[in-house]
Amino acid sequence: MRKTTNFDENDRELAKLARLLSHPARIAILRFLASTDCCISGDISNEIPLSRTTVSQHLNELKGAGLITGEIEGVRVNYCLDSQQIEKASASFDGLFEILKNNKPKQCNP
Amino acid sequence: MRKTTNFDENDRELAKLARLLSHPARIAILRFLASTDCCISGDISNEIPLSRTTVSQHLNELKGAGLITGEIEGVRVNYCLDSQQIEKASASFDGLFEILKNNKPKQCNP
DNA sequence: GTTATATGTTGCAAACATACGACATAATTT
DNA sequence: AAATTATGTCGTATGTTTGCAACATATAAC
């Protein structure tokens, strides 16, 4: 059914990135990681109004895409933003919006 | 099941916006609209490797969110980017990435 | 070595998204 | 008014995401 293969490689990449941001929990997680001056592991679960299991899954998706890293440290896991990947993601969105903003006035609404 | 209600209003709005960009067809549609100097209606379907029905649905989602407008003109419909909404969306993403980029170096990877 | 703590994994159900054929509508052309 | 063209809507099939409880693992504390 899903026919994403037929699309432009860049569009597909950006779509994947956008999907990561398409859930408020994942946005909240990213913001939380940016706000703490130390990388906190399970405390994320306390900040997010979802079960630990579900938060863990969201963390995994973010990690899978490379936006965050998770360093095991004894029993704990320290999650961090991957600044480079964040930068790349940011640039991708910028690239799209640059194109979208440069659309000329059209004949249909003069 | 879906518990998005418990989240920050801004995060929820941004998530909705991100969801729109989470499918390559919708990104392609937006880019196509930005690239044509006249707003074309069903020609979008020819540009997108999906059935007319499916493209119509994607157009509807984009219209529902206000990112594009669709002016009926006889038998045809002229779709256009809504520059103001695009600008707003762009600013929302910028706002998030601004926060994410300003994360200080953490103790966990010194 | 047992207990407590922190975390990850599995399996399942509900909700949501995607894709399309078939039908409906409505303006234009013939 | 019949045929054509452009578009939208409905129903339905299937795929994907979200959410959680229950179980598994593994370090640390006692």
Biggest sheet architecture of chain A: 2 strands, antiparallel
Low-confidence stretches of chain A: none
CATH class type of chain A: Mainly Alpha
**If strands are numbered along the chain, what order do they take across the biggest sheet of chain A?**
1-2
Proportion of residues in β-strands of chain A: 5-15%
Mean pLDDT of chain A: 89
Helix content of chain A: 55-70%
What's the helix and strand layout?
The structure is a homodimer of 110-residue chains.
Chain A lengths: L8 H12 L3 H12 L7 H5 L4 H13 L3 E6 L2 E6 L1 H19 L9
Antiparallel strand pairs in A: 1-2
The structure holds a DNA duplex (30 and 30 nucleotides).
Describe this structure in words.
The structure is a homodimer of 110-residue chains. Chain A has a single domain, classed as Arc Repressor Mutant, subunit A. The model of chain A has no long low-confidence stretch (mean pLDDT 89). Chain A has a two-stranded antiparallel sheet. With 110 residues, the first copy, chain A, is mainly α. Helix content of chain A is 55%, strand content 11%. The longest helix of chain A has 19 residues. In chain A, strand 1 and strand 2 form a beta hairpin. Chain A has 5 helices and 2 strands; from the N terminus they run ααααββα. The interface between A and B is large, with 56 and 56 residues. Chain A binds a DNA duplex (30 and 30 nucleotides) through helix 4.
